[in-house]
Amino acid sequence: MNYTIKQYPDKKFTDKMDQTRFIKKHFEELKEIKKAEYKTNSQPIISGLKTKMFEPQIEDITSDFIEVKTVINTTNIIDSHLDLHMPNIWNKTVKDNPYSHHLKQHENKFESVISKKAKSYNENSNFNQLGLDVNFKTVANINEFVLERSKIPFMFDAYKNGDVDQHSVGMLYVDLDIAYYDEDSQKQMDFFNEMKQQCVNPEVADEYGYFWVIYEAKKREGSAVVFGSNSVTPTLWVKNYEPQNSTQKEAARALQAKRNLIINHLNN
Fold first, then answer.
1. How far is CA 125 from the centre of its chain?
2. pLDDT tens digits for range 2-17
3. Phi/psi zone of residue 141: left (φ > 0), alpha (ψ -120 to 50 degrees), beta?
4. Pairing state of beta strands 137-148 and 65-74?
C-alpha cells in the first residue's frame, strides 16, 4: 500500500515510517497549510462503520412553513479529511455566534440560502442515536431553522419528504495537532494510541498511519449535502411551523376584509 498526505498529493510513501519521517520533518509546515484550508465536504473514504436504520421524525406537513433540526457535525469520528473533531471543538464558535447560515451544498449564492439565521448549538449525544450500531458518545453540532416553502421549494420538499440525510460544516481551523504512527518515539506512539481511542472508527487511523486532531474550529455555515465528509449527520426532525407574524397578518387581513365588506355595503 502507498501512503499519501492530502497536503502533498504528489508525494508517495512506501510504508508508515517513511510517511512518519516526512511528517516529522515538515511538521510545522503541514500545520500551517492545514490551518489555511477552508473545510467543507469531500467524497467519503470512510467505510466499515456499522450502521442501523435511522428515520427522522417528520410530522404530516400541512403548513407552508417548516421547522427543521439537523446535525451539522459530530465529534469523535475520523472523517474523510482524516480529521478527528474533539468534543470541545465548537464551544467557542457557538458562544461567539449562536446563529449560522444554512446552505444548499455549500453554495455561496443567494438562491442557495436555506436560512441565514439558523440556531447553532451543541448537544451531547451518542452515535447509537444517530444511525450507528455502536454505543459511543459524541457531541452533535446542530442547526435549527425555519424554512418557507416559497423560498426554496425544492429543499422544502426534500426536508418534508425525508430526503436530506447528511449535512456538512463549512469551517476554519483554529487549533490542531497531528497524531501519527511512530515506532521511533514512544511519546508520539502513546499520543497516536490515546487519540485513536477517542474515535468511533480507530481502524482508519491504523490504515492511514496518521490523522489530524482538531481542538477548535470556527463554524462559518452548515449545509445540506448528498455526501459529507462525515456521514453521521442526519436530519433529526421536521415539524409544521406557524410564524406569529404570519398569524397576525392573517388576522389583520381578515379584519380588513370585513371592514371592506361593511364599507361596500354602506356605499351600495
1. 14
2. 899 989 999 999 999 9
3. beta
4. antiparallel
